[in-house]
Design goal:
By secondary structure, the protein is α/β, with parallel strands linked by helices. It contains 11 helices and 6 strands. The protein binds zinc ion (ZN) (2 copies).
């Protein structure tokens, strides 16, 4: 199986080298690898202001911002992290990019996604001492061969000249896929699933950490990682993701 996947990937890399570069989501030819064609670029939902000051959920109009520019969810319960920002709305236009990147071996999407994240999270990156990716459980890492969040964090670290610690967090419990679970069930599933390994405590203590992940849905995973980093002595945790699922309460 693994040999087959390597062969498929090697074949595709060879084709990519022979063919002109294609748009990230369609067959259109573009000038450079990792670009969107004009039509797809127009359909992609880049998240811009106004958005929730705490979780980055895009507002459809400014009047949705409550006190302190927070969405209803964060007004009810303020997250433990400082700010979360996402580059793209997770929708039918961005989903093929995110799914290809996470499950389809399209590891070359890391750089274009990181470029979009660097724009959306410029302020967060400026203030971060260290980038830490959300870890995969060992079993899942072996099955998938790569952790998409590590690839994003590595590309972002290069773009923003920030150090990155791939094993700053460890997933101590394998958790079921969160797929269809409710926000409450997601929180219960991932609570306590992460820890800072003892040998990484010195690197985390006293630092402003930017947590990196591919998709933010309910925020349960980011919240569990944030609590582990704060418990290890991080002074602040912000969150930067490639895509976030818009809050249905803001639709
Ligand atoms: Zn296109
Ligand atoms: Zn919010």
């Amino acid at each position: 199986m693994i040999t087959y996947r390597y062969a498929v990937r090697a074949g595709r890399l060879l084709l990519d080298a022979l063919l002109p570069p294609q748009c990230l989501t369609c067959d259109a030819v573009v000038a450079d690898q990792g670009q969107l064609c004009a039509a797809c670029f127009g359909m992609i939902g880049f998240i811009t202001e106004p958005c929730c000051a705490a979780c980055g959920a895009p507002f459809t109009h400014t009047a949705q911002a409550g006190p302190d520019h927070l969405c209803p969810t964060c007004t009810d319960t303020r997250p433990d992290w400082g700010r979360a920002r996402g580059a793209l709305r997770y929708d039918e236009h961005s989903r093929p990019i995110l799914l290809g990147f996470k499950h389809g071996d399209r590891t070359e999407y890391a750089t274009p996604l990181a470029r979009m994240m660097a724009r959306a999270g410029a302020a967060l990156l400026r203030e971060a001492d260290l980038l830490v990716p959300v870890p995969l459980h060992r079993g899942r890492l072996i099955a998938r061969r790569y952790n998409q969040s590590v690839l994003l964090a590595r590309a972002l670290g290069k773009l923003a000249c920030r150090p990155m610690l791939p094993d700053g967090l460890r997933r101590i419990r394998a958790t079921a896929m969160l797929g269809e679970l409710s926000a409450e069930a997601r929180a219960a599933t991932v609570s306590g699933a992460f820890t800072v390994p003892p040998r990484r405590l010195a690197a985390i203590t006293g630092r402003r950490i930017l947590l990196i992940d591919d998709v933010l849905t309910s925020g349960a995973t980011a919240a569990a990682c944030t609590r582990a980093l704060l418990a290890a002595g991080a002074v602040r945790v912000d969150v930067l993701v490639a895509a976030r699922v818009p809050d249905p309460r803001l639709a």
